[in-house]
Design brief:
Elements: H1 2-17, H2 27-39, E1 56-58, E2 61-63, H3 66-71, H4 76-96, E3 102-107, H5 117-120, E4 128-134, H6 137-149, E5 156-161, E6 177-179, H7 192-202, E7 207-209, E8 212-220, E9 243-253, H8 254-259, E10 267-274, E11 284-294, E12 297-299, E13 310-311, E14 322-329, E15 335-343
Parallel strand pairs: 3-4, 3-6, 4-5, 6-7
Antiparallel strand pairs: 1-2, 8-9, 8-11, 10-14, 11-12, 11-13, 14-15
Helix pairs in contact: 1-2
Bound molecules: S-adenosylmethionine (SAM).
S-adenosylmethionine (SAM) binds near residues 108, 139 and 165.
Length: about 350
């Protein structure tokens, strides 16, 4: 039975890993992966689930409930790009240290350990060892059921039910890769920044997956963001967008984490931008998120729920000539905060 399930997973993984297929064409394959894991997990996706049931507000942001975390699979381009980027990060780590297993710390593995499963079909337990960590015991129990059903137990070094922001990495077993997808567009609400910062400080040689999350400010002509294609049209050109880059507001990466050593636990530094004057009325000031999972495995605007553009978080109107200064607020309600600091 386990062999049959493993073979089923391997076939799905092969299709997902085949980089000749663009991520947005693989909804069916991700559906098959989600179906396979949900058949063997105690966390099921109920259509009647009340959003918010079972979630936890931690001191560093929102931890999605086991059911909502299980639904993340369905953001299928996200899932494909993370799976492919992780596989490439593992290959790089194997090339660097081929004589010992690569260690992954998967912080926020959810109820299916979804993002790592396809890689477990490519590398044996002597080549790849994983610590599965989640704040929700129900998710860890469910992930263990999936791992056992697929006969992948030998790949798992440890199961940890703990807040990742309180986790002490065993110093004798530092991870080679820290994997976490605990984020929202513009790094709002969920604890990705605090988790990456807390874990990477303990294992600064580890590769982060995602390797960089960037939030940039743009003026966006919203009406030109999409174009509608007639159902019978054979032309499928990309829309000609009209955006003006204003500047990088924030980045989460190994380099920025290293630069925050002398920074406290309330706020992190972020960029400032100046609005052009005059500010043409058809433009909306927006923040665009880009997730570089690994090298050229990247999620850009609209590829995923994680990269939906958002208006600049400022309570009132923004005028031409104003300078906007940002910082990243840490704590229970994390996110970018913007203040107007000057007008020219
Ligand atoms: C967005 S879901 C992603 C689930 C899965 N990794 C995936 O990509 O499909 C985030 C997961 O991280 C967990 N999580 C959030 N904050 C956490 C924290 N501070 N410590 C440990 N786990 C956390 C949640 O419980 C949830 O399972």
């Amino acid at each position: 039975m386990r062999r049959l399930l493993f073979d089923r997973l391997s076939r799905i993984a092969e299709a997902i890993h085949d980089e000749r297929s663009p991520a947005y064409t693989l909804a069916t394959e991700i559906g098959s992966l989600a179906e396979l894991v949900r058949e063997h997990a105690s966390v099921r996706i109920e259509p009647t689930e009340v959003r918010g049931n079972g979630e936890s507000w931690t001191g560093d942001g929102l931890a999605l409930s086991p059911t909502m975390a299980g639904r993340c699979a369905d953001d299928f381009a996200r899932t494909v790009v993370f799976i492919r980027g992780l596989r490439r990060a593992i290959e790089e780590s194997r090339a660097f240290a081929p004589d010992r297993p690569t260690r992954i710390l998967y912080a926020g593995c959810g109820p299916y350990a979804l993002l790592v499963l396809p890689s477990l079909t490519l590398f044996g337990p002597d080549a790849l060892q994983v610590t599965l960590l989640d704040i929700h015991g129900e998710s860890i129990g469910s992930a263990r059921e999936v791992v056992d059903a697929l006969g992948l137990g030998e790949h798992v070094e440890r199961y940890e039910t703990i807040d990742a922001c309180r986790y002490r990495i065993p110093p004798e077993r530092p991870p080679d890769i820290i994997l976490s997808e605990t984020m929202n567009a513009c790094l709002a609400k969920e604890p990705q920044v605090s988790i990456a910062r807390h874990l990477h400080r303990q294992a600064p040689a580890a590769a982060l997956v995602p390797e960089s999350i960037r939030v940039d400010a743009y003026l966006v002509h919203v009406a030109k963001e999409f174009h509608f294609v007639e159902a019978d049209s054979v032309v499928d050109a990309a829309p000609e967008r009209d955006r003006v880059f204003l500047g990088r507001v924030f980045e989460l990466s190994a380099e920025t984490i290293a630069s925050w050593t002398a920074v406290g636990d309330e706020r992190l530094p972020a960029g400032a931008i100046r609005m052009p004057d005059p500010l043409e009325p058809h433009y909306t000031p927006m923040l665009l998120t880009e997730v570089v999972v690994h090298r050229d495995h990247v999620l850009r605007s609209y590829d995923s729920g994680l990269t939906i553009p958002k208006p600049i978080p400022h309570g009132g109107p923004i005028r031409g000539g104003e300078t906007l200064a940002f910082h990243y607020r840490l704590g229970a309600k994390p996110g970018l905060v913007c203040e107007i600091v000057g007008v020219e």
